[in-house]
């Protein structure tokens, strides 16, 4: 079956150490971490820090439990020891920066308003209803399997295709390792990811947030509050803060940790887990001094994947919340309703029938 052509809304919207990637460890001491009641290390009061390396060895079952707690209580986590080398993290960030610093007419060659395009540049826009400007410019593209798409990618800046493909493959590897652990933690029958998610895909977005004039800061967002219509989103931020998550009714900033990814639970995992895990509501704010970049990798299942929760997750304490629906039905509905967040799943609730 052909891979799904997922549509990711504009305004929503390893095995570590495999292959030639050298595993990295955080050399910067994580001094602002505290511990929560589950014993998880929490970064600056925001998200737990998970060590992906813990899945390979005697700490595997503890790490799987930590992952489960993180997805259940926080909707996301900071991921260290993900197996993607520092060279590659810096490499993709530089390529993204070079791309967004190309002249506008060069970037605009990739512009398309069609969300089903296999690659497209999306620009900032004004939302007249809410009288706000959403300033993110992004280059979005399908990337798994990479050889099916790489020929559509820009050749300018030089080496763009090489570096971006290497990153996409490496982040996908980390994603699969994580997902296997997440599904195991949910107590789902041990099946391969391919069996659960069929011909799953990957979609990436290089995100660019220009600086904003001080006088317009109050009316400008990088991205408005949203959840991602994905299973998981793996986000590589640069060093400039800007991402905020909604926790207990407040927007709290997530400060980046060098060489560390930020992972969001997406709507699809909320549905698959019968709501044990909640998708993370997040937004991006801008500032007047420094541009910001981030690289998002979105993992989504094939069009035909049945998105209802598996039977192992249903019992008297956990009655069925979502009926069976396919991923195609989910994103078609999302696109039609243009709902910004996990409310997109509401029409698939058993009680909505
Ligand atoms: O740039 C960020 O920190 C977040 C990007 C994001 O939310 C997305 O691409 O869905
Ligand atoms: Fe997002």
UniProtKB/TrEMBL annotation:
Keywords: Iron, Metal-binding, Oxidoreductase, Vitamin C. One of its GO terms (molecular function) is oxidoreductase activity. Residues 1-25 are annotated as: Disordered. PROSITE patterns: FE2OG_OXY. InterPro entries: DIOX_N, IPNS-like_FE2OG_OXY, Oxoglu/Fe-dep_dioxygenase_dom, Plant_2OG-oxidoreductases. Pfam families: 2OG-FeII_Oxy, DIOX_N. Residues 192-301 form the Fe2OG dioxygenase domain. Belongs to the iron/ascorbate-dependent oxidoreductase family. This is Fe2OG dioxygenase domain-containing protein. It comes from Populus tomentosa. The lineage of its organism: Eukaryota, Viridiplantae, Streptophyta, Embryophyta, Tracheophyta.
């Amino acid at each position: 079956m052909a891979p799904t052509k997922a549509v990711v809304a504009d305004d929503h919207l390893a095995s570590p150490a495999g292959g030639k990637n050298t595993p990295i460890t955080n050399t910067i001491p994580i001094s602002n971490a505290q511990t929560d009641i589950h014993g998880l290390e929490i970064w600056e009061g925001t998200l737990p820090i998970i060590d992906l390396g813990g899945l390979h060895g005697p700490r595997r079952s503890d790490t799987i439990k930590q992952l489960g707690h993180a997805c259940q209580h926080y909707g996301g986590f900071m991921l260290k020891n993900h197996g993607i080398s520092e060279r590659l993290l810096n490499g993709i960030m530089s390529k993204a920066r070079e791309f967004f610093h190309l002249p506008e007419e060069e970037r605009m060659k990739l512009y398309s308003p069609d969300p089903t395009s296999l690659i497209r540049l999306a620009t900032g826009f004004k939302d007249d209803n809410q009288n706000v400007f959403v300033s993110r410019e992004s280059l979005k593209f399908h990337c798994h399997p990479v050889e099916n798409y790489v020929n559509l990618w820009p050749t300018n800046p030089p080496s763009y295709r090489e570096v971006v493909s290497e990153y996409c493959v490496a982040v996908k590897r980390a994603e699969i390792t994580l997902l296997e652990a997440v599904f195991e933690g949910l107590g789902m029958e041990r099946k391969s990811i391919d069996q659960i998610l069929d011909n799953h895909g990957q979609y990436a977005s290089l995100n660019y947030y220009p600086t904003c004039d001080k006088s317009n800061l109050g009316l400008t967002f990088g991205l408005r509050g949203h959840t991602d219509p994905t299973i998981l989103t793996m986000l590589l931020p640069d060093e400039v803060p800007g991402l905020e998550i909604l926790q207990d009714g407040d927007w709290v900033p997530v400060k980046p940790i060098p060489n560390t990814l930020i992972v969001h639970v997406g709507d699809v995992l909320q549905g698959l887990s019968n709501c044990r895990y909640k998708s993370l509501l997040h937004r991006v704010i801008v500032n007047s001094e420094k541009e910001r970049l981030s690289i998002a990798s979105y993992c989504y299942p094939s069009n035909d994947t049945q998105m209802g929760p598996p039977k192992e997750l249903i019992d008297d304490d956990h009655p069925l919340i979502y009926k069976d629906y396919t991923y195609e039905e989910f994103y078609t509905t999302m696109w039609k309703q243009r709902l910004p967040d996990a409310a997109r799943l509401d029409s698939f609730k058993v009680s909505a029938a």
